[in-house]
Structures are given as C-alpha cells and as structure tokens.
Write a structure and sequence with these properties.
By secondary structure, the chain is mainly alpha-helical. The protein has one domain (3-71). 67% of the residues lie in helices and 0% in strands. The protein has four helices and no strands. It has helices at residues 3-10, 14-25, 37-52, 60-71. The two termini are 31 Å apart. 0% of the residues are buried. The model has no long low-confidence stretch (mean pLDDT 93).
Length: 72
C-alpha cells in the first residue's frame, strides 16, 4: 500500500473516509474478494436460513438507506 495515499486519506473527516471506503469497495468485483471454504460454508448456511425465513430479511437498499439516514 502506498503510505502517501493512506496519509492523505487519514486527513479526511470520518464521514469522508467512510465515503472513500464505499467508493473503493464499489470498484471491486466478486473475483477480487477471495472466499475461504469456511467462509463459503457460513455463506451457504446464511442463504439457507434466509430462504427458510424470508420475512425476517430486509433488502440491502432498505438497510443502506437506514444507515445513511442515521449518519446525517
């Protein structure tokens, strides 16, 4: 990692650092994110639970909107 970029990012206020994290995260594809066998097992279990109780789940857009609202 380039230490000069990190130093610049650390000068940003927390909300702008969060926005930077989100912007960087959005540039990644699934292939960029390695998943271990253990993590794959956890994801498979959670998908099974979600399918078994769909009314307990909320779409990401709803969760994100609630989080965005609480930040402002």
């Amino acid at each position: 990692m380039r230490s000069d970029l990190l130093a610049q990012a650390l000068k940003l206020p927390p909300i702008e650092r969060l926005e930077l994290i989100e912007a960087l995260w959005d540039t990644l594809s699934p292939a960029d994110l390695p998943v271990t066998d253990e993590e794959r097992g956890i994801l498979d279990q959670r998908m099974s639970e979600m399918k078994a109780t769909p009314d307990d789940e909320r779409p990401w857009s709803e969760v994100k909107a609630r989080l965005d609202k609480s930040r402002h």
